[in-house]
Amino acid sequence: MKTICVLHSKIRRCRKCRLCTGRKHAVPGEGPCPAQIMLIGQAPGRSEDKTGRPFIGRAGKFLDEMLTEAAIKRSECFITSAVKCFPPSNRAPKTDEINSCKPYLYEQLKLVRPKGVVLLGNIAQKAVLGTDRTSQRSVVHGTNTSFHRKLGTGNRKPITLSGITYFPTFHPAAGMRFPKIARNIVKDMHKLKMLLKR
Ligand code: SF4
């Protein structure tokens, strides 16, 4: 059986998309496996690229504060991102890069077996749930048009599919700029905490 360590060493050597050329380190993710909570961001930033660890820059520190406010320990979460390598100039990952990296994310979901997954921003939502407007298909969960209707733009309602509850929310970088968004991220973290108590 493939373990998370085997998968992560494969990711560290991966050259499937152009992002491998500019990275210092691939950032597979970290945390307990299995874990009840999984957090998925967009892509590594400069600090993450330097160290090979997820969410350790400014947005990461902000995320830690959000977790603390919701009484969630970072050490109990498996943390990763939609693409595992730093996009040049911190740009958003392109669709083909997200698609190349998706199989790793899906393998992580299978191995971590989370009860709740927080999708931090549009890129994570697109990678996991296939909410790209050009596609009505989620590779993880198959075609699910009613799900896409429910999600909608800005709809942060949790969605349960195949026993996993997904919490679409904002990226912490947006929360750093807008206090209202930060409050909404914390609200979503609280919803996750409630789910775990059930
Ligand atoms: S972003 Fe993903 S698919 Fe692209 S090189 Fe890095 S690990 Fe491989």
Protein described:
The protein is of the alpha/beta class. It is built from 8 helices and 7 strands, in the order H-E-H-H-E-H-E-H-E-E-H-E-E-H-H. The strands form 2 sheets. It has a 5-stranded mixed sheet with strand order 2-1-3-7-6, sandwiched between helices. Strands 4-5 form a two-stranded antiparallel sheet. Strand 6 (159-161) and strand 7 (164-169) form a beta hairpin. It is globular and about 40 Å long. The relative contact order is 0.17. Residues 132-153 have low confidence and may be disordered. The protein binds iron/sulfur cluster. Residues 11, 14-17, 19-20, 26, 83-85, 97, 100-101 line the site of iron/sulfur cluster.
Low-confidence parts, pLDDT < 50 over ≥5 residues? 132-153
Largest sheet: number of strands, sense, barrel closure: 5 strands, mixed
Determine the fraction of residues in helical runs and give it as a percent range: 40-55%
**What structural class should be given to the helix and strand makeup?**
alpha/beta
Strand content: 5-15%
Helices and strands, in order, run as HEHHEHEHEEHEEHH
Overall pLDDT metric: 88
**Estimated radius of gyration:** 15 Å
Bound ligands: iron/sulfur cluster
What is the β-strand count?
7
Strand order of the largest sheet: 2-1-3-7-6
Task: Give the distance, in angstroms, between the N- and C-terminal Cα atoms.
Answer: 31 Å
